[in-house]
UniProtKB/TrEMBL annotation:
UniProt record similarity statement: Belongs to the protein kinase superfamily. ADCK protein kinase family.
GO biological process: ubiquinone biosynthetic process
Keywords (A to Z) from UniProt: ATP-binding, Kinase, Nucleotide-binding, Transferase
Ranges for domain Protein kinase: 131-445
Record carries keyword Transferase: yes
InterPro entries assigned: ABC1_dom, ADCK3_dom, Atypical_kinase_ADCK, Kinase-like_dom_sf, Prot_kinase_dom
One MF annotation (Gene Ontology) recorded for this entry: protein kinase activity
Name of the protein this chain belongs to: AarF/ABC1/UbiB kinase family protein
Pfam families: ABC1 (PF03109)
Length: 445
């Protein structure tokens, strides 16, 4: 969720199915026209470009970004997920422009906002508040957040869902998948239906603000005795399926800590790593959206404010156990066990081992060497990432080894990878091995 709307502008969200479909149609037409024009130009210059080179131009990536940010909802959410989850593997032009989806947010015109509030609270909704700021303090893919003060003096953050978002999830996911498929990012030989089904289910859960309010309350209960975190309090009376009302909690962007002393960055990031291990091995529930804006830093007391619990989901016991065994093998720096546990967890398949065994061994060695050292690990040092990218791309070019891990594992891995990306943004340096060892010992299997 983006938290400074000085960058944004009022732009009505297409709420009807036809208007949203037309948006995708316009995007496809624009991309097709660009491909024809760029192809003719490069052929005239004596080049023989491939189709994916013609599609993945900066201009087309910009078209994709603009359209997804306009449609918002599941369309924009998937664009954000792609840019965060696969950033190190995407073509640089596409990665750079898609990343803008994490920092871009248009907001609803006042008239459209008032229509949603009247539908949820009734036409006299203004009588509940001393003031309600119509300009949002944050905007995201599914809703935008407003600051308000009730007649009773309660300062609130009110998340208002964009109209039409919940009803368009299925079609939006399918349309984005089609766009990615024709771009060459999703190979036709890869069966992505299970992943698309899981994505639709999670997005529908995220669009249910009553569910999110309950998840927020449960997280507050789990962390009641942990002084490191703050979870907003739910205002039940004002919360509806499309409006989430909660206490307003002060805090600044956590990634801004990059300018603070190293010790503060390290201590703050260590708290987040410990939280991820508790989610995975103790709670059995994980907030699986690692968007940086979901974590705020409260300078007054050094606490981390946790936001956005729509993506909170149960972690299946077999997934928890698979991660524990994989981490234990990694701590022992045992490449044979690491490979076997990765296979058991579904991260890899037999085809990869048979066809790309040497490359896989090199990848495992790089990761094992980096993560298992009993020494401070510098998350900001990404020197090994290009090596991993090159090794990974050599596997990706082998169609016979393509594989998608189980969806429930991917959701967890998204949080793990996203947390590592936050550590890189903050420039955190912590002894990862010591922390993992300690948490595995504290939390019984």
């Amino acid at each position: 969720m983006t938290d400074d709307t000085s960058w944004g502008r009022q732009r009505a969200v297409p709420s009807g199915r036809l208007s949203r479909l037309a948006g995708f149609g316009g995007l496809a037409a624009g991309v097709a026209g660009s491909v024809i024009g760029e192809g003719a130009k490069r052929l005239a210059a004596g080049e023989r470009p491939s189709l994916d080179e013609l599609i993945l131009t900066p201009g087309n990536a910009q078209r994709l970004t603009d359209r997804l940010s306009h449609l918002r909802g599941a369309a924009m959410k998937m664009g954000q997920m792609i840019s965060m989850d696969a950033n190190d593997m995407l073509p640089p032009e596409l990665a750079q422009i898609l990343a803008a989806l994490r920092d871009r947010g248009n907001f609803m015109p006042t008239k459209q906002l008032d229509g949603v509030l009247k539908a949820e609270w009734g036409k006299d909704w203004r009588g509940v508040f001393k003031w309600f700021n119509p300009r949002p303090i944050a905007a995201a893919s599914i809703g935008q957040v407003h600051k308000a003060l009730t007649r009773e003096g309660e300062l609130l953050a009110v998340k208002v869902q964009y109209p039409g978002v919940a009803n368009s999830i299925d079609s939006d996911v399918d349309n984005v998948a089609s766009l990615l498929s024709i771009s060459g990012l999703l190979p036709k030989e890869l069966d992505i239906e299970p992943l698309l089904k899981a994505a639709k289910e999670q997005l529908k859960e995220e669009a249910d603000y009553l569910r999110e309010g309950e998840q927020m309350r449960l997280y507050a209960k789990r962390l009641a005795h942990d002084d490191s975190f703050v979870v907003p309090s739910l205002n039940e009376a004002l919360t509806t399926p499309r409006i989430l009302a909660m206490s307003f909690e002060e805090g600044g962007p956590i990634e801004d800590l990059v300018s603070q002393p190293q010790e503060l960055r390290n201590a703050t990031f260590e708290k987040l790593v410990r939280l991820v291990t508790r989610e995975l091995f103790e709670f059995g529930v994980m907030q699986t959206d690692p968007n940086f804006a979901n974590f705020r830093y409260r300078k007054a007391d050094g606490k981390i404010v946790l936001l956005d619990f729509g993506a909170a989901r149960d972690v299946e016991p077999q997934v928890t156990q698979a991660y524990r065994k994989l981490l234990e093998a990694g701590l022992d720096a045992d490449p044979v066990r690491i490979k076997q546990e990765a296979l058991n967890a579904g991260f890899i398949n037999e085809a990869v081992i048979e066809r790309q065994g040497e490359t896989l061994d090199r990848i495992i060695k790089i990761i094992s060497d980096e993560m298992s050292r009993d020494a401070p690990f510098d998350f900001g040092n990404r020197e090994f990432v290009p090596v991993l990218r090159e090794e990974g791309m050599s596997i990706a070019r082998d169609k016979g080894s393509w594989h998608i891990p189980p969806a429930e594992t991917l959701f967890v891995q998204r949080k793990v990878s996203g947390t590592a990306m936050l550590g890189a943004r903050m420039g955190a340096v912590i002894n990862l091995r010591r922390i993992v060892e300690e948490m595995l010992e504290i939390i019984p299997a």
